Amino acid sequence: MKLVILGAPGAGKGTQAVNLAEKLQVPHISTGDIFRSNIKGGTTLGKLAKEYIDKGALVPDEVTIGIVKDRLQQDDCKKGFILDGFPRTIAQAECLDNILAEMDTALDCVLDLAVNDEVITKRLSGRRVCPECNASYHVDYMEETQKGICLVCGTKLVQREDDREETVINRLKTYHNQTEPLIGYYKAKGKLVVAEGKIRIEDTKTEVYKVLGLEK
Ligand code: AMP
Questions:
Q1: Candidate of 13, 18, 35 to mutate for ligand 1, largest count of ligand atoms within 8 Å of Cβ
Q2: C or N terminus of the chain, fewer CB within 10 Å?
Q3: Residue 138 in contact with residue 123, Cβ under 8 Å?
Q4: Is the CB of 9 under 6 A from ligand 1?
């Protein structure tokens, strides 16, 4: 399946994308993860991306589109992919259509994970992530015994710099101004399905499987 997951920051795109990629046996492509690993590696791309990410703004389209184009042209994407965090602007969506058309293919479906701003703000301020394996947790749902340690790889969890409150406010503004119009864009193309994001990850997953017509 060739799928895009849309949704505000903190809607749970990453968590659902990891699960779907495993279920469907296709690569999970997260532009946010690509930028973060470049920031960690101190690359030129990382330095450039950090300037925008720290402000809650979008990395310029010409940079982001090139990265995604290269990734989609790799062999493992032939059988499908889950795009998480891309596209985020109409210009990116139009380029994605063109990239796929050049490859003689097209998106099967676009999944919008709908969650309101109040829930998002709470989620992001309590989110803690593993800097090693990218696993994501919430302070309210972490086991007492876990003590801020990643259950997958044992690394100490951290707060993403862009999950701090001032940046979250800007990220939400950016989402509403630049990314939300994509819902109408894909609806008009008949590609959109909507799943309501729930408090529990498992409940969101049930909803996602239902709208995508997948067996649990
Ligand atoms: P995410 O992990 O998807 O929330 O992305 C973190 C940050 O990376 C975003 O707030 C943006 O600054 C940047 N970013 C990720 N994907 C894109 C994209 N498709 N276009 C522009 N900037 C992006």
A1: 35
A2: C
A3: yes
A4: yes
Strand order through the sheet with 81-84: 28-30, 81-84, 2-7, 109-114, 192-196
Please tell me if the CB atom of residue 6 comes closer than 6 angstroms to any atom of ligand 1. no
Q: What is the model's pTM? A: 0.90
Specify the pLDDT at position 201: 86
User: How many CA atoms are closer than 13 Å to the CA of 64, on its beta-carbon side?
Assistant: 28
For 149-182, write each residue's pLDDT tens digit.
999 999 999 999 999 988 999 999 999 999 999 9
Q: Kindly report, residue by residue over 78-100, the tens digit of the pLDDT.
A: 999 999 999 999 999 999 999 99
List domains and CATH numbers for the chain: 2-115+179-212 (3.40.50.300)
> DSSP label at 59?
P
Q: Which residues pair with 204 in a beta bridge?
A: none
